[in-house]
Every structure is written in C-alpha cells, then in structure tokens.
C-alpha cells in the first residue's frame, strides 16, 4: 500500500478509515525508510481479501517451515516432499501443504478494501 492509496481510502469518513489511516500510515513510512520500498505490505488485510476473493492472487501449494534456531532463526523455508533432497540433516517436511500467495493484483486489492471501507456500518 502506498501513501496515495491510503489518502484515497481515508477520504471515506468513518471509524474504519480513520483507524486504518492512523495504524497503516506509520508502517508505510517505516517501510519506505528502512526497506527502500515505495509503500508497505499489508499481509493481514491481504489474507482476508484473498479469502473473500481468491482470484486476487496466484497461488502455489507447498510445505513451509520457519527456522527457530541458529543463524537462520526466523528464515522461512519452502520445500516440497517431491523436490530433490540431499541428505544434509534437514528432516523431511511434516504436516500438510499450505497455500502460498505468489502475486497479487494490487489495484483490485485496493478497490476491494475501498469497497468495504465505503460500506462499513451501512
């Protein structure tokens, strides 16, 4: 999300638009300053939007794991059961595959958010 997107969403005067402007604007600025991005990612909003309209994103099914120890702590690893595996001390994936969002139709995402903000409380 860009500041311009948030400015457009904030034009709808209601509690939801005010809340989003107050909470997302600092995050946009932070992302611009620390990550050299033109805006910020809004993961939680994207997840809900994708549940409402799965055509917003392309997806893949795979196994994910998050490293909890050592130098790779916090790193997300993506690997399938059928991919080439060398015996290097990495256990085989356990659990179920997850849906991974790969690319987003951002204009449609912003339009969907705008629709729900405009109809909030209606």
TrEMBL record:
<dbReference type="Pfam" id="PF01156">
    <property type="entry name" value="IU_nuc_hydro"/>
</dbReference>
<feature type="domain" description="Inosine/uridine-preferring nucleoside hydrolase">
    <location>
        <begin position="4"/>
        <end position="109"/>
    </location>
</feature>
<protein>
    <recommendedName>
        <fullName>Inosine/uridine-preferring nucleoside hydrolase domain-containing protein</fullName>
    </recommendedName>
</protein>
<dbReference type="InterPro" id="IPR036452">
    <property type="entry name" value="Ribo_hydro-like"/>
</dbReference>
<dbReference type="GO" id="GO:0016799">
    <property type="term" value="F:hydrolase activity, hydrolyzing N-glycosyl compounds"/>
</dbReference>
<dbReference type="InterPro" id="IPR001910">
    <property type="entry name" value="Inosine/uridine_hydrolase_dom"/>
</dbReference>
């Amino acid at each position: 999300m860009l500041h311009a997107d948030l400015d457009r969403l904030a034009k709808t005067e209601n509690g939801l638009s005010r809340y989003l402007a107050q909470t997302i604007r600092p995050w946009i600025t932070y992302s611009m300053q620390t990550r050299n991005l033109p805006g910020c990612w809004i993961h939680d909003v994207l997840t809900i939007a994708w549940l409402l309209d799965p055509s917003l994103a392309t997806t893949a099914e795979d196994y994910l794991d998050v490293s909890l120890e050592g130098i790779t702590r916090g790193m997300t690893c993506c690997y399938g059961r059928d991919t080439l595996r060398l015996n290097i001390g990495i256990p085989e994936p356990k659990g179920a595959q997850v849906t991974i969002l790969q690319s987003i139709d951002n204009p449609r995402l912003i339009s969907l958010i705008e629709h729900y903000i405009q109809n909030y409380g209606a």
